[in-house]
Description:
The protein has a single domain, classed as Rossmann fold (3-Layer(aba) Sandwich). It has a nine-stranded mixed beta sheet, sandwiched between helices. Strands 5-8 form a two-stranded antiparallel ribbon. Strand 1 (2-7), helix 1 (14-24) and strand 2 form a beta-alpha-beta unit. It has helices at residues 14-24, 67-76, 86-93, 150-158, 218-231; strands at residues 2-7, 27-32, 43-46, 81-84, 100-102, 110-118, 134-141, 145-147, 162-166, 178-182, 188-191. The protein is of the alpha/beta class. The protein starts with a strand and ends with a helix.
Amino acid sequence: MRVGVVTFPGSLDDRDALRAIRLAGAEAVALWHGEHDLQGVDALVLPGGFSYGDYLRAGAIASLSPIMTEVIDAAGKGMPVLGICNGFQMLAEAHLVSGGLIRNDHGNFIRRDQALRVENTDTPWTSGFEQGQEIVIPLKNGEGGFIASADELARLEGEGLVAFRYEGVNPNGSLNDIAGVRNDRGNVVGLMPHPEHAVEPGFGPDTAAAMRSGTDGLTFFSSVLQATVLAA
Ligand SMILES: NC(=O)CC[C@H](N)C(=O)O
């Protein structure tokens, strides 16, 4: 299975995403934002970072990059797409998932090992988790506050489209503690915390809770591998 990671000008976590994919056992394919070419990949990751310097709004300019034409087309056909942090911001700007991300309510960039509750396992990126499972992965952003209109929020909740919720601490004022959402079909998932930074023992979160494994993030990438094997 081939999983592509798109690099944009200002991407920061593309290499870690490629490494996470390899550690999960898939072939990692580096893609460039300026090309209209997905190189035949089976799944896609939009990585974290500061694409276009976060000018305008984080993810807004990247969402108009040439390759996004192909990403939007593939997502519409059911290809698994994961947006991590800046990638989640791009998914929201491209309307591939609902809602938007705004500056953290306290106004500061924040970095912490963050506990999350897995709310929806019916996606190719979360199928390896248990419903309600608590995981710990790193969070690091300045514009992580999840917003949506009252109607859209009610729809997300009512239709079970909230994929992850902050547990214990809401680090940025996100409505309903929402840390990640999925699209209606389930193939597109976006979240603010970073699974690709928690894939190897000793290099991930260092909280006591996470010492259970420190590799909760790897399940995202092993899940998508499993999803495609089952579909094949
Ligand atoms: N880690 C990231 O991807 C950061 C995302 C974005 N640049 C922000 O600060 O909100």
